[in-house]
Amino acid sequence: MDHKAILNRLKLCIQLLELHEENPFKIRNYQGGLNALERLDQDLMDLSSQDLAAIPGIGKSILEAIQSLKETGSFSALDALLEQTPTGVLEILQVKGLGPKKVQVLWKELGLTSTHELMEACQSGKVAQTKGFGEKTQETIIQSLLFKATTSGKWLYADIEETIESLANHLRKELPTAQVGIVGDFARRLEIIAEGEYLIGSADLPAIKSRLTQLAGITWDKAISGPLTWRGKLEQPGFRLIIHLCNLEDFAAKELLFIASKAHLSSYVNEQETVSELIRKSKFESEAAFFQQNNLQFIPREMREGMGEVEQAKAGIIPLLIENSDLKGILHNHSTYSDGKHSLRQMAERCKALGYEYLGISDHSRTASYAGGLEIEKVAKQHAEIDALNQELAPFRIFKGIESDILPDGSLDYPTEVLRSFDFIVSSVHSVLNMDIKRATDRLLAAIHNPYTTILGHPTGRLLLRREGYPIDHKVIIDACAEKQVAIEINANPWRLDLDWRWVRYAMEQGVLLAINPDAHEMDSYDDMQYGVLIGRKGGLTKEMTLNALSEKELSSYFELRKAKN
Ligand SMILES: [Zn+2]
Ligand SMILES: [Zn+2]
C-alpha cells in the first residue's frame, strides 16, 4: 500500500457506502477525511497515527481505516461492503461517467451485474429509456466500456479469452499461408494475463511483415519491436500484444520455447541438459515428437510451469487431467433464498438440463445478513421445497447444503441440530478479512475441525486484481483437511480461482479431494465451471481427486458416511 492506493481504497469505500445507501453521516464523515487527505502535501505513509489524528477532518473511523490499510491492505468496513457487492457491479462502478447513484439504478432496477450485461442493455437501448439516463449517457457508457482496460493493463483470463482467441483466428484468416499459434501465459492458462502472445511461422516472412502492418485495429510500437518480435497494442480493448515470427521449419521448437515458463525451460531433463537446451538442439516436427524423442511423457501445456512436472514426466507419472465432461454435478450455488438471482427451481432445472446428475444448493447462513443469510425457519422451508423438487425431478437430486460463515472465532453459524440437517456444508470466511496469518489460519483450522464442515470454501477470500486474500498457511490448512477428510473448493469464479492452482498437487498428495464449484449466484454462472477445470488441470488435478466427479450415488454415500461419523 502506498499513499495513492490508500486514497483509492477510501474512495472506493465512499462509493460503496453511497451505492448501498448507508447512513449519510457516515458517508460525510469518510468524505471529509478523504478531502483532508487529498489536501495534504505530505506522503501519508510518512505520517504516524498521532500526526494524522491532528489533521482537522480526520475522525476516528478513518484513522482506524488508514492504520488497517497500512498494515493489511484493507479494512473491515470496506471488506463488508465488498462482500455485499457483486464483482460485476464493482466493475460497473469503475466505468467512467457512472456514479454510485446511477450504478444503483442499473443494478437494482435493470438487474445488471456485469459490464457485459451493461453493454448489452446499452446496445438494446434499454439504458437510454431508463429515468435519469438518456441517449447521451448511454453513448458515453458504450464508449467507456469499449475503452475499458484495467488500470494495470492486466486482465482476468476469462475476460480476455475471447479477444485472444478471435485475434488468433483473424490472423489465420489474414495470413492463410502462415502457421499461427497462441503462446505465452494464455497458452498456459494462467489466471491473470497481461499480454496476448502469438507465434507466426512462414516461408515468406517479408510478405507476412508487410501484411501485419496493414492490419486494422493494431498499433505497432517500433521502438520496442525487433526484426522477429513485434510489440504493440490491440486498440480495442487496449491490450498489449507480442507477435514472434519464425521460419516454418522452426515453428514446433519456437512454440515449445514461447509457451513454457522460464522455470520449466530451465528444468533439467538429464544431468547436463535443460528442457530449453534440448529444444534448441533436437530436430522434431511436433510438440509430441519432442517429448517422445527425449523419453519424456507428454506434458500438457498448462502444466509447463517448472513446478516438478519435468520430474514427473521423466518418471511417467503425469496423471490424466480432469475434463469438463468428468464433472457429474455442481456444488456450492445460491438461490433467491439468499443473494442468488434465480429460484431454487430455476437453478435445479437448468442444472438438470445441462446434463448434470445433481445440484448442491448452499445459500448463505444467517450471519451473512448482507446477503440475505437464512434464518433457521427459512432453512426448514428450503428443505421442504428441496424434498418436493427431488420427487419431481428424480433421478436428478438436489443436495441440501449451506455456505456457513466461518465466524471470527472459527465456529460455524448454526447450532448443531441445524448443522446436522444438511447433506453438506461449505464453510467460508466472508467477514473480518484483515486477520494476520496466525489468526486467519487458526480460524480456518477451527472450521476444518468442526465435524460438520464438508468443504472449505474459497480458502483465501482473494478477488484477483482487486483484493489480496487474507494470508493463510496453506500447508497447515491442507494437512488439517487431510486429517479431517474435508474437501477443499477450487472456486471457479474467474475472480477467485481459490484454492490457488499452485497448491492443488500438494493437496492431492495429502489425499485431499478438491471440489470445482462455480459459486453460482445465477444460472449462467454454471459456465464458470470450465475455469475451475482449467485451473485444476494447471495444478495437475485428476477426476479421481475431484469431489464432484463422483456420481450422485457415490456422492450421496460419501455425504452419508461423513454424517454417520458425527
Ligand atoms: Zn462465499
Ligand atoms: Zn457462495
Describe this structure in words.
The protein is of the alpha/beta class and 566 residues long. The protein contains 25 helices and 14 strands. It has helices at residues 3-19, 24-39, 49-53, 60-72, 76-83, 87-93, 100-109, 115-123, 134-146, 157-174, 184-187, 205-213, 251-259, 262-265, 275-281, 287-293, 309-315, 344-353, 376-393, 416-419, 437-449, 474-484, 504-509, 529-538, 552-564; strands at residues 155-156, 179-183, 192-193, 195-202, 218-220, 229-234, 239-247, 329-333, 358-364, 397-405, 424-428, 455-456, 487-491, 514-517. The strands form three sheets. A seven-stranded parallel β-sheet has the order 8-9-10-11-12-13-14. The protein has a five-stranded mixed β-sheet with strand order 2-4-7-6-5, with helices on both faces. Helix 1 crosses helix 7 and helix 21 (437-449) packs parallel to helix 22.
Strand content is 5-15%
Low-confidence stretches: none
Which oligomerization state do the chains in this entry correspond to? single chain
For the largest beta sheet, what order do the strands appear in spatially? 8-9-10-11-12-13-14
Instruction: Give the tally of β-strands.
Output: 14
Overall morphology: globular
